[in-house]
Structures are given as structure tokens and as C-alpha cells.
Amino acid sequence: TVLKHDVNTDGISYVTLYGEINDLKLRDYTILTQLMAMLGRLPTAHYDVVSLTRKIKSILGDFSSGFSPVRTFKDRKVRRIYSVSWSSLHRNDEEAIELIKEIIYTTDVSDKQLILDILKQNVFVLEQTFSNSGHSLALTRALAHSSAAAAISENSAGYEAYRYLKDLVTT
Question: Quick check: helix, strand or coil at residue 69?
């Protein structure tokens, strides 16, 4: 399904690709979240990290990817949604799409040291989140015992994710 809104954006395209993934074990959502966060930060088939960063900055106004559990209002089911979002000038749309395809389909996850370095940075970010938003994380952790969406959030970006990543980067 493609949704297009015909509104004036001053020549800028805002695009988000969504997908759903439901067949993972709870712990796997930690890994999925980290992999989604690494898109654009790892080399691809045609770009090393520095070249890819330059290309992203020259073609895209913004780039992000992530994962989030979403509870539907109608049937109250939890949908596990991953997304890739970007913006680009209309004149760069075709090149932007090619770059996004490059990132999605050919990201190279073979450099263990680079991935370890990124994971260490992500552990630090989680630690900062505890300092700045500990109350929110505590609430999610408490709700994880009674809510599927909160359990997935806890394992993708909460304290459980932190423990798993901290163990991963120290062993």
C-alpha cells in the first residue's frame, strides 16, 4: 500500500517505509532494535562508512530507522512495526530511493569490531536514558508483566535490553 498526501512541502519529500515482523522471540527484539539502529552506520556493498555518511548527508535531509510495538485501537492487538524514514529534495528522490535500497539490502554486518563499538555507544546511550528518563523506563518495566507491547518495549529498548547488551559488550 502506498499513501501519498498531496500537500505543499516546499520541494521536500518525506518518506517512511513500514513493515511488520511478528515471528521473533522476545529476546530477538533487542537484536532487531540494534540492527535497525545500525542501518546507515555500517558499510554497504558500494560504500565504506565514511563514504556512506557523506552520501547520506548530501542526498538525504534526514534518515532514521527503528522498531516499535504498536497497539491497535480497534482490536487492541500488538503489531511489531519496523520503519525506515527519510527526507530529500524532490530533485533527489530517485537517488535517495537508490541509496535507501543500498542501505536496506546491502548493509555489511561482517565487521565485528565496528558493530561492538556501535553497541558500546548504544549501551552508553541507554545508561544516559536511565539518568534522564528513569521513571519512564521503570514504568515500562513494571507494565511488561501485564502488557505484550510493554514486554516488547522492555526487551527492545528497556532495562532488559540494556542488561543483554551490557553482557554482550563485556564478554
Answer: strand
Cell of 45: 556493498
69-123 residue pLDDT tens: 888 888 788 889 999 999 999 999 999 999 999 999 999 999 999 999 999 999 9
* Residue 7: C-alpha distances to residues 18, 85, 95 (Å): 21, 18, 22
Distance CA(128)–CA(8), nearest Å, equals: 38
Residue type, 145: H
pTM of the model: 0.85
Instruction: Give the bridge partners for 78, in sequence order.
Output: 71
The 10 Å Cβ neighbour count of residue 36 is 17
pLDDT: is 6 or 103 the higher one? Answer: 103
What whole-number distance in Å separates Cα of residue 25 and Cα of residue 102?
28
| CA 130 to chain CA mean position, Å | 19
